[in-house]
Hints:
The chain is of the alpha/beta class. Helix content is 42%, strand content 8%. One of its GO terms (biological process) is pyruvate decarboxylation to acetyl-CoA.
Amino acid sequence: MACSAAAKILHNPLLISSSRSAEKSDSCCKILGPSSFLGSTSLSKKLVSVNKGVSRASRRSANVVAVSSDVVKEKKLKSNSAAPSLLITKEEGLVLYEDMILGRVFEDMCAQMYYRGKMFGFVHLYNGQEAVSTGFIKLLKKEDCVVSTYRDHVHALSKGVPAREVMSELFGKTTGCCRGQGGSMHMFSKEHNVLGGFAFIGEGIPVATGAAFTSKYKREVLKEDCDEVTLAFFGDGTCNNGQFFECLNMAALWKLPIVFVVENNLWAIGMSHLRATSDPQIWKKGPAFGMPGVHVDGMDVLKVREVANEAIARARRGEGPTLVECETYRFRGHSLADPDELRDPAEKAHYATRDPITALKKYILENNLASEAELKAIEKKIDEVVEDAVEFADESPVPARSQLLENVFADPRGFGIGPDGKYRCEDPKFTEGTAQV
Length: 437
Ligand SMILES: Cc1ncc(C[n+]2csc(CCOP(=O)(O)OP(=O)(O)O)c2C)c(N)n1
Ligand SMILES: [Mg+2]
């Protein structure tokens, strides 16, 4: 029967298509119902009409499936009702909690420092979206790569870049992870394989695809022992850009070890996802290119983690890319310069009740994984880490003016020839920043 594989997937929602089972089966995709979208009622209504015509199209391909993880937690807990097996150990729970608290406290401190004039340019905060960064990045090895957007501080922190280095970068100081040259939107750390925040939307996706290609090349051509995975994070608004489609195609074609992580916070600055996108279900674009597409509640770190675990493992096994759409919400304006007057207060209030940190705390306490006191101790520790980061950044030196010219051209002669007919880079005043140009 054509739908037998789909039925299996419904019972086993994390069974993302493996090529082996797919070859054998005449599977059809599981199409998410409107209830799969959790927050926006207008989105739910639109999806009812979208879904009416979708079942035939869903049989597009035999070797791709789209799955929902909404029932993961319930399923696991019911699996042994006498002694329900938990989704995480105590140690794992505390790691997740600490990382999410770090992200939140760090960003709140950024807001304070920005309004005190310690940071320059635009600063985009991540409050509300922590379950995505933590749920994915805490599963990575150090050698794995992360590519981010301009909303990148928390991705860098989750990947292990010290808070001191991120804060100093935001202050434009030499001790920052880019020696103060990048600022808020350009977190980069070679040591931690954070390959950059990118200010132009979609710009990071080809970089991530290239990193994944490198891993595959090392493994298959150079025969190196390499199973590294790259995570590409980007927003819903970015999914309407060409680079997204080009890279999905290449990644699927070459079976690259990459996970495309869409942080669908329903807004692109002041543009609603529903107004801008012909089909708001972004995960469906995965199967269109021949890779699994997954929708997950991005306000629930445990669900995100389950989906991330499978998608990362699939990439590591050499089975190719996955597109994961995490439905999430940002609790602040687009940037710290945005008065955030466009979004409906009722929508904001709805998502405030779904705070991912509160949800994890509840899970930990209800399942006796840790006590209130243990969680409080983590919060205290993180307050100290963030305070220390601010002091460190504040006391660090600003870069010399000559640093402005570094890392701009690979060959310094790229600065051209001055009025005296000599290369500008040969004029000492040029590197001191005092030359007339
Ligand atoms: C190529 C390009 N076009 C336009 C912009 C202006 N811009 C900055 S943020 C943004 C919205 C992006 O929204 P989304 O991808 O949903 O990410 P979010 O801010 O919600 O995290 C746009 C259009 C840009 N930075 N780069
Ligand atoms: Mg968005």
